[in-house]
């Protein structure tokens, strides 16, 4: 049995290609006929693939395997290509979704990654159904309507609009825009979209990103931040808002930001809901549950990855969320829902259940909670849970227990509790940098600017009384002593002392406030865990620069943030903890 992921699509945006994807399953469509009469024979490379696919189309097959549709990445020798451009065509969707350069470069097929994206999109909007037992795909009744609708017709637009209104992440975005009195950036949307706090659903702080964009030293750096730096939820927000714009539900806006020197730069795009979009979301939500548009939710929508990328963990989480949704249809108190889940073999406490409910809301389900009372306001269709028991990886269970402990003892948002995971994952170092900077701003109440890039620290944190040069380190087994990173921090400290444009042309220190006393600057490393050798790194840094600082493990970072928020820790006394050792705030 195959377990795939649907519901979350990052790159496809062309509705014409989406329709062609759906038409691959419709023997009555022009696209199917074109594949049958011309394309398979002329574009598919290997004879074995050509014969298999041609035979299926000749026999008007309308149900295909994943391999038939998406194919693989192989070169002419049948091996994995060194370059994507060396891959040959070997699937139906590869030769259906043509690249923009097809006519100029003569390459009449795309790669298997793009083919997978369009297949996911078609499944996510309910145009194609999936049989996970056999790993087969076929067209739905809704898909047949789209396939047969005239191109560019009112009917086609209505079919696409109605499908989008059954897709929870799209209605989530429309609802956020409807509630907002001003247009929203992808960051403002992404911060409230998806399974917040999980790998695959990161979002960066909007103010932090705007400040970072304003601090860019060159146009190249500006353009990179504007176009390439975003969390995964931010990217989903941008993509889905783009779809909604094409469907006339959302309007895009360009922005300019004014710099301190009077210059203006292009800013992040924002989105607002149109009158048509507002009417559509109100109608879709209905005045009662019986009049709402059903939400289409597959089990495969409900998680992307586990902490260790364990498929068993991922599928356990999917099942837990699916059973919560099913339970909400019959049980209307938290206690009754916990009992129902227990009878289904899913053990949760109130803290974990509340966390899951919040994530299902940001996924796009309308759930109303008031104390112990809880009501699902949507009709859900599509959920089909595999008849299989999934056993999470022990490391993931440990991680969940630790995070749930912090949910209980702190009032921190879920996105910051996730730091307990990404502080140990070097693949997520950028998330760690940016979200840590956001925590200092949101929870400690300090000015915080993420810098990144060459010859700059990860960020600066400050108020009118002190400034901190910030460096974050994500290491799976903990952070020890690294001579080159001592050198880097010492160089940043000297840059800030001398403030010499010739020595360091990017002048990153200008991001600090103007009135910080010269003797009130400190250095700080933040990591998941510090190994014993790290103490030597702190001593050497102080010895070489005369500046005090320390190391802060992410557990203490979070507890300190919670203490500040609760008034139990005065943020202005942070410098008193800087004694060139690992800091214990709480």
In short:
It is built from 24 helices and 18 strands. By secondary structure, it is of the alpha/beta class.
Write the layout of secondary structure elements.
Elements: H1 15-23, H2 30-43, H3 47-58, E1 63-65, H4 66-70, H5 102-105, H6 112-124, E2 128-131, E3 136-139, H7 141-148, H8 154-164, H9 168-179, E4 184-185, H10 186-190, H11 206-215, H12 219-228, H13 232-246, E5 250-253, E6 256-258, E7 264-266, E8 270-273, H14 275-285, E9 295-296, H15 311-328, H16 334-343, H17 350-363, E10 367-370, E11 373-376, E12 380-381, H18 394-409, H19 414-417, H20 419-422, H21 429-442, E13 447-450, E14 459-462, E15 467-473, H22 483-498, E16 521-527, H23 534-545, E17 549-553, H24 554-565, E18 581-582
Parallel strand pairs: 9-12, 15-16, 16-17, 17-18
Antiparallel strand pairs: 1-3, 2-3, 4-8, 5-8, 6-7, 10-11, 13-14, 14-15
Helix pairs in contact: 1-6, 1-7, 2-3, 9-13, 11-12, 22-23
